Amino acid sequence: MEVVFAVISIVLLVLYFREHSRNKKMESDYKYINARLLDITNDDESNYILVPSDRKVVKETAEEINNLLEKFYGRQIEYNRSQKTILQIVTNISHDLRTPITVLRGYIEMLYLQSQKEELSPVMRTTIEKMQSNSGELVHSVNNLFDMAKIQSGDMALNIQKVNLTQVCHEIILEFYDLLERENFQVEVDIEDQPLYANVDTEAVRRILKNLIDNAIKYGCAGKFLGISLYERSGYSYIAVEDHGAGITEQDKEHIFTRAYTADRKKGNGLGLAISQGLASSMGGSISVSSIPREKTVFTVRLQS
Question: What's the whole-model pTM score?
Answer without folding.
Answer: 0.64
